[in-house]
Write a structure and sequence with these properties.
By secondary structure, the protein is of the alpha/beta class. It has 14 helices and 17 strands. The protein has a 9-stranded mixed sheet with strand order 2-3-1-4-5-6-9-10-11, sandwiched between helices.
């Protein structure tokens, strides 16, 4: 591998070659990118391959419940100013997918890696990251994911004593609790719209006080740290108090928050905020998210929302009524099979929008909308929903596998 002072062993090279071959077969069979199966094959042949592939790279890990794919992409764009970047841009964020991504990065200087929350501690142990970005923690995949406070505790234990610079959201008490075990933390005031998972203190279980944007526990004194970076309207404030304008093609407050965290990460590696933010403007869509596509002579904007926090942020960025909205929900393995989270979403925010409902669990969603007193139609498929939608661009909001189904249907 060029640029690597510690060349891969013959076994590791064989593992990489076999993984790439398996991925190619998977792609040829039309079963997706092949990154996961390729990584599994490679790790079977060399269980230490991930660590070996990371040795010559400056590794940046990004983890969160929401926004990690987009933030990974923004950081990768920003760091491109300082050298070649390898990244798991398609979101394969468990060890197999991460191994596949790094196997393609022999000439890279940086590895910007999205990591599933449950695997963060293990991947950090294997890759010895220089920087770890922690954005938020909220309820997700309720049938198999740990309760959020347990996940924060898992992060806290896994990151204790880490040599990495941890760039962490000061506005999420769970993230602050997790990051506080690290000796080198850079706090970012990135905001937190969804607060329903952070009303009890992760340190002592007491009731959190939340006056304005501040928060603290009245029982044990655990409180919001002072940030050195901040999102302020349409600007990022750096540690010197300078305000740098955010110009993104990606919509919404959440993506400005992602940009603020990304600028802080880029600064760790010497990329100035102005350069980092200018490079982020190049990102128009992320793995199909935010894409506007033509389908049946209509414009559809594709939006991914997987859990209550994500749906709340998404509702804040859609066009106002009477813009038609299509909602699609599945409950397959990758989504989590428990749809009780639908009851945590405030669907009254869609009042005035014509709503069309589809997906494997369309009836679950229909019951929830009925209770929220919304006007909606249940449809068999996307074609029917688009045919019945009134004029104008259609906002399409879907959870993970429903989103992939829709992308395939529209040829995206």
């Amino acid at each position: 591998m060029s640029g690597n002072s510690d060349p891969l062993s013959p076994r590791a090279k064989l593992a990489v070659t076999a993984g790439k071959a398996a991925a190619a077969v998977s792609r040829a069979a039309g079963r997706g990118s092949g990154s996961v199966i390729g990584g599994r094959v490679a790790l079977k042949l060399d269980p230490d391959l991930l660590a070996r592939l990371a040795t010559h790279l400056d590794v940046i890990l990004v983890s969160a419940t929401n926004g990690k794919t987009t933030t990974t992409r923004l950081i990768a764009e920003a760091l491109g100013a300082a050298g070649p970047v390898v990244s798991n841009a398609l979101g394969a964020n468990m060890p197999a997918g991460i191994t596949s991504a790094l196997a393609g990065g022999s000439d890279a200087k940086f590895a910007v890696i999205e990591v599933d929350e449950k695997y963060l501690a293990g991947v950090a142990r294997d890759t010895d990251p220089k920087c770890i970005a922690l954005l938020n923690l909220s309820r997700d995949q309720l049938d198999r994911a740990a309760e959020t406070r347990m996940m924060a505790e898992h992060w806290r234990e896994g990151l204790a004593g880490s040599k990495a610079v941890v760039v962490a959201n000061a506005d999420d008490p769970l993230v602050v609790w997790a990051a506080s075990s690290s000796p080198n933390v850079m706090w970012v005031a990135a905001g937190q719209m969804w607060k329903d998972d952070a009303w009890s203190c992760p340190s002592c279980g007491g009731v959190m006080q939340r006056p304005g944007d501040d928060w603290f526990c009245g029982d044990c004194g655990f409180r919001r740290p002072s940030p050195t970076w901040a999102l302020s309207g349409d600007h990022v404030l750096d540690p010197h108090g300078s305000a740098w304008p955010i110009h993104l093609q990606l919509p919404g407050r959440a993506n400005k928050a992602n940009a603020a965290s990304s600028a802080a990460v880029a600064a760790v590696f010497g990329v100035p905020p102005q350069v980092a933010l200018e490079r982020m403007y190049q990102v128009q869509a992320v793995a199909g998210r935010y894409d506007v596509v033509q389908f049946m002579q209509r414009d559809l904007r594709l939006l991914l929302a997987k859990n209550p926090a994500g749906w709340l942020e998404t509702f804040s960025l859609i066009d106002p009524p009477p813009t038609p909205v299509i909602l699609s929900v599945n409950a397959r393995g990758a989504d989590g099979t428990d749809t009780s989270w639908l009851w945590d979403v405030d669907y009254t925010r869609l009042t005035g929008h014509p709503i069309f409902v589809l997906g494997d669990r369309k009836l679950d969603l229909a019951v929830r909308l009925e209770v929220a007193n919304q006007q909606f139609q249940v449809c068999e498929n996307l074609d029917q929903a688009v045919q019945q939608a009134p004029p104008g661009r259609i906002e399409v909001i879907a959870n993970y596998t429903a989103f992939q189904d829709l992308r395939r249907r529209v040829g995206n």
